[in-house]
Amino acid sequence: MRTLQDSRSRSRLWFVASLVALLALVAAACGDDDDGTPDAPSEPAAADTGAESTDSEEAPEPETTEAPDPDEPETTEAPEPEATEAPDEPETTEESAEPSGEPVRIGILFSNSGPAGVFGPPTANIAELIEEDINAAGGINGRPVETYLADDATDPAVGRQAMEQLIDSDNVDVVLGTHSSATRQAAKPLAEDADVLYIYAALYEGGECSSVMFNTGEVPSQQLAPVIPWMMEQTGGQTWFLLGNDYVWPRRSFELARQYIEAAGGEVVGEEYVPLGTQDFSSVAQIIAGSGADLIFPALVGGDAIAFETQAVDFGIGQDAIPRLANIYEENVLGAMGPAVTAGMRVTLGYFKEVDSALNNAFVSRYFERFGADAPPHMTFSSHIYDAALLYAAAANAAGTTDTAAVAAAMEGLSLTTPTGDISITGSRHLSQPIYVAEIQADGSQLIVQSFASVEPDETCDPA
Amino acid sequence: MDALTLELLNGVSLFAILAIVALGLGIVFGLMGVINLAHGEFVMLGAYVAYVVHTVGLNHWLSVPLAAVVLFVLGVVIEVGLIRRIHRQPELTILATFGLSVCLRQIAELVFSKDFQSVPNPVPGATRAFGVLFPTYRYLLIAIAAVVVAATLLAFTRSRFGLVVRAIVADRDLAESAGIRTGMTNLCAFGVGAATAGIAGALVAPLGAVEPQAGLAYLPGAFLVVIVGGYNRLWGVAAGALVVAAVQTGVIHFYDAVWAQIASLALAVLVLQFRRPAPAGAVA
Predict the structure, then answer these.
(1) A124 touches chain B (CB under 8 A)
(2) Are A375 and B113 in contact (CB under 8 A)?
(3) Cα separation of A89 and A414, whole Å?
(4) Are residues A48 and A192 in the same domain?
(5) A313 at the B interface (CB within 8 A)?
(6) Neighboring chain B residues of A19 at a CB cutoff of 8 Å
(7) Predicted local confidence at residue A21, as pLDDT
(8) Residue B278 confidence (pLDDT)
(9) Residue A336: which CATH number?
């Protein structure tokens, strides 16, 4: 009896020990994310907050005052051309003055883990450049800016907590968001209650309207209205098959696509939705093959897109047989499909790193110099976050304050030229912006084959 | 007629995928009573084995046995280090394997990054048979899955090892007092379960994305199959996969993919209503 009890208590001990070990492992494994999560994800921000308590009245980059840091000098010495160019609206005289005083805190709510986590790393990189560029251009009202990143783990509940963290603990003046609409819906009430400006910069289905919000991502009307007729003209295709994941963004995109297709004299011969996380597309492929469609508009995300496209080739409905117009396929997803699958596909988005302008070429080469040639590529999500930060800085400078209502008033009608192109905030609190169509080349690279300047969003918003 | 043939082939290939993915879960759940929430991550790791085999330039088919070996070893380590301590308490196995799944995902992310990877199809294109064109890779997948599932089922039902396993499933304490080394059997069962998950991962890798999160998508399907098929008979995995594949394919054909998912979940609810959820085999 005794021995049995002994062995039982020993095995319990073992269990506790292994549980502790397991927790330690989880903590260690997640640690990489955590130091990149709520508090101060981007490395310079982490350094800043660490040193902040001792010398907050000093320059935005504490390191510069301490010792010549090999990484940093360029930030204070040589402002890059686009940095000075960007917030060009307000006091150009102040640009040379080093910002000082209490920092303006810019929160960035993004997905750095979970299914959309693959889009996180470029945004985390861009956060560093946002700090650097706005500070190099004189900061906001003479104050330096600091960025605070928070990860929503692609989960609205976590996103709400992350928003709470940004507002309550980090005391941010503005939140820039690139994450799902579900997270936006969960986090928005917190921004409204705290009266914190919230610029949602991800492409989304449209329809958002709130007194504290601006929505600067592409909406379906922008991505589709000019591009669908262009696509039909280019390919001669008339009949479309719409295949999307089953949630609001593909459904809204298809609702609008159907209008534009019919207006252009085309016809929708099939519309199918598959649950997120679908791995087998054999039956769907057969439906598409039987539909006789000339063109496919796939609004599939992540792994679903890769599964569909790789399987479609073997079912004889690859890009070669039925050309694609995609509105979300980005480099990560296209890269995983491989050029054999993707060559010839066309993608419509508000930004590609291949955008050919002096401003963008300089920005992109600086991005890869800074973060390495194999850095996660700068793409539409990170680009829109960068633009949102510049818009905020310009508006706050114009308003002369970071007061939410005053900045919001200054935002309306604001125009800038950024690496993306010419952008301006519309009366509907969305963004008039360029739309680009890239065609995937045989080597997998993206070539911009068409661009539409200043595409207006078909949105209405009049917050009381 | 051709459309029907194609749909049948679609159904059979889905059946093969579901069966091979769920097999390991069925073994571990049915024999040990361990609810392994890290099963999807085993499949994910199997897919990464195929990815590594591809990046070093070896033949894809080599990844199938290699994934089995790698995952068998990993399964043995996990059984000794973790499962062995807690396998008599199902609720603890849920917590522990959930934690394990988080760890494995994070480790995969650290090693391979979050990026989507892919394994090119070793036999692209389609083969004409039964009057229709059907992807060649899927024919091979069906064949390999059939062999692996059949061999595993035979091993567990026809061999002396299978006899011992069934004795343990019937009454663990009695088997133990009859001199059967249940620990060793558990070790084998968990290792074999993980190995089949590895094979599944290597087989499905060319059909989709290889990424750290990929396992999450396979887990619900595997559980669905095990629930529908019943967990105390191993051939239930095959039966469950058949029923789920038939329902999925049928509903997609006549309705759409969203309803297909709803239908297969409803099926699981229905099955549970009619079958008292008897304690899984090995629960003492």
Answers:
(1) no
(2) no
(3) 9
(4) yes
(5) yes
(6) 96
(7) 52
(8) 54
(9) 3.40.50.2300
